[in-house]
């Protein structure tokens, strides 16, 4: 009995950890997997800025190409830089041993990162870098303290000289595209090529794509779920009438 209780505790421990939530405030990000234009911009950003180190090895290029309505030839020509074929898994050229030697640990696969961390965490993390000369790479992150990753978006965002104001309500409205409280950085050490609003919108697109990758069937599942609930409701009516007919003469 004790072993059973211990096993159940170990099984639910990760869920309890996720339910506890993040250690600090985050900016809210609500994904929209029906926004194909956003997802297309997101896959372009991920390919150009993230996929040099991070794989998405649980997904295939062809599935992404089909779901995002990008012609296979166009996808293969502009978004595959490893020589892989369109039907292969989204892996990277850099070996894990080589990556561990450079960064201390191999960069994680990001297929399911939004399922583990949540979209708001990823969105806040991407915008949370700031200058920190005490760190080996010269940057730190308000969401992930002592981060071992360089600020790969510095060309676009610039580099914040102080800690960004994450958790004060910055968000992108999916329907209008308007940015609320976009400028999370009060002072820049390096100026970026994008305005604060444009960069936030780009990171929303990137996070939206990563959210899609973690649950690529979400839109279809929700669409089918409506029909399943309608079927269950209709079936319940007939099941109730049949049950009443069976038991009407039972005393």
TrEMBL record:
<feature type="transmembrane region" description="Helical">
    <location>
        <begin position="224"/>
        <end position="242"/>
    </location>
</feature>
<dbReference type="Pfam" id="PF02167">
    <property type="entry name" value="Cytochrom_C1"/>
</dbReference>
<dbReference type="InterPro" id="IPR002326">
    <property type="entry name" value="Cyt_c1"/>
</dbReference>
<keyword id="KW-0732">Signal</keyword>
<protein>
    <submittedName>
        <fullName>Cytochrome c1</fullName>
    </submittedName>
</protein>
<keyword id="KW-0408">Iron</keyword>
<feature type="signal peptide">
    <location>
        <begin position="1"/>
        <end position="19"/>
    </location>
</feature>
<keyword id="KW-0349">Heme</keyword>
<dbReference type="InterPro" id="IPR036909">
    <property type="entry name" value="Cyt_c-like_dom_sf"/>
</dbReference>
<keyword id="KW-0472">Membrane</keyword>
<keyword id="KW-0479">Metal-binding</keyword>
<keyword id="KW-0812">Transmembrane</keyword>
<keyword id="KW-1133">Transmembrane helix</keyword>
């Amino acid at each position: 009995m004790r072993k059973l209780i211990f096993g159940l505790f170990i099984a639910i421990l990760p869920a309890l950890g996720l339910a506890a939530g993040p250690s600090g405030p985050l900016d809210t990000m609500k994904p929209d997997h029906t926004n194909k234009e956003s997802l297309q911009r997101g896959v372009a950003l991920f390919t150009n800025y993230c996929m040099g180190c991070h794989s998405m090895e649980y997904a295939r290029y062809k599935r992404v190409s089909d779901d995002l309505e990008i012609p296979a030839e166009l996808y293969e020509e502009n978004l595959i830089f490893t020589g892989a074929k369109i039907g292969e898994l989204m892996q990277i050229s850099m070996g894990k041993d080589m990556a561990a030697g450079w960064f201390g640990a191999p960069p994680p696969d990001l297929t399911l990162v939004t399922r583990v961390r949540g979209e708001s965490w990823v969105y806040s993390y991407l915008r949370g870098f700031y200058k920190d000369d005490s760190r080996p790479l010269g940057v730190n992150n308000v969401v992930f303290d002592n981060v071992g990753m360089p600020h790969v978006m510095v060309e676009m965002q610039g580099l914040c000289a102080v800690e960004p104001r994450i958790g004060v309500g910055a968000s992108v409205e999916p329907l209008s595209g308007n940015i609320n409280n976009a400028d999370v950085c009060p002072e820049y050490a390096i100026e970026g090529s994008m305005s604060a609003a444009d960069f936030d919108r780009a990171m929303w697109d990137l996070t939206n794509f990563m959210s899609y990758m973690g649950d690529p069937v979400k839109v279809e599942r929700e669409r089918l779920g409506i029909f399943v609930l309608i079927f269950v409701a209709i079936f319940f009516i007939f099941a109730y009438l049949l049950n009443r007919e069976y038991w009407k003469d039972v005393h």
